[in-house]
Amino acid sequence: LNKPEWYLTQVLMWIGNHSKFLDEKIQPILDKAGSSVNAGLEFSRALVMLILEKLAADIPCLLYDDTLFCHLVDEVLLFERELYSVHGYLSSFPSCMHILSEESCFQRWLTVEKKFALQKMDSMLSSEAAWISQYKDITDVDEMKVPDCAETFMTLLLVITDRYKNLPTASRKLQFLGLQKELVDDFRIRLTQVMKEETRASLGFRYCAILNAVNYIATVLADWADNV
User: Fold this and answer.
1) Is 208 left (phi over 0), alpha (psi -120 to 50) or beta?
2) Degrees (nearest 5) of the Cα angle 186, 192, 193?
3) Would you say 26 and 42 are in contact if contact means Cβ atoms under 8 Å apart?
4) What residues contact residue 76 under an 8 Å CB cut-off, 6+ apart?
5) N or C terminus of the chain with fewer C-beta within 10 Å?
6) Where do the domains of the chain lie?
7) How many helices (H) and strands (E) does the chain have?
8) What's the CA gap between 120 and 154, in Å, rounded?
9) Distance between CA atoms of 19 and 83, rounded to whole angstroms?
């Protein structure tokens, strides 16, 4: 259960190792017979169906172990990325995202994603470098003087988007968007709490860093507004 990468990598290897044989030996036979079947894609689809069976059997066994469940989701997302980008798998075919979209699994994914995002926010705001710009010495890069915590937070949101963007239904994507909105609001509250501690020094370093953070986040969210 703790090594889903073993069978996921094995399937990718099988697909890669057989592609030349399927293209050069099997596909001409199908073409000659007037069939519209793509040998390589059908081979991939059959192997993916085996993975779906395996996932359906494994997921209930690790649903409540955060570490194992997170590892499985991470490995499945990596597998899906390579399957589509390297091996040309079709989005209309069955995929692992359909398994991750099933109710009990999906709700668990959302819960775990939120838990780890909040932990990340705790660590980024308690870091000694939280209010310092990592580009502070490079003036042409650092016009907005973005503190490290704001940049790390927006990267966190971007990573979450990247993880859920291939979900098969809009309703599931919207649930993840809801999580991101919760995280933005949570971050706003945290900034407000820090700001209240700094009101006596409103021209101080940290107070200015908070204003820069808010400006940066608002600007990036406005840039993302066109991303359906």
Assistant:
1) alpha
2) 90
3) no
4) 4, 8, 55, 96, 100
5) C
6) 4-101, 108-227
7) 9, 0
8) 12
9) 13
pLDDT tens digits, 54-93: 999 999 999 999 999 999 999 999 999 999 999 999 989 9
Quote the tokens at residue 148. Answer: 């490290």
Length of the chain: 228
d(CA 3, CA 182): 32
This prediction's pTM: 0.86
> Crossing angle, helix 66-85 and helix 39-62, to 10 degrees?
170
Token pair 């993880």: residue: 163
DSSP codes, 11-79:
HHHHHHHHHHHIIIIIHHHHHHTT----HHHHHHHHHHHHHHHHHHHHHHHHTT-HHHHHHHHHHHHHH
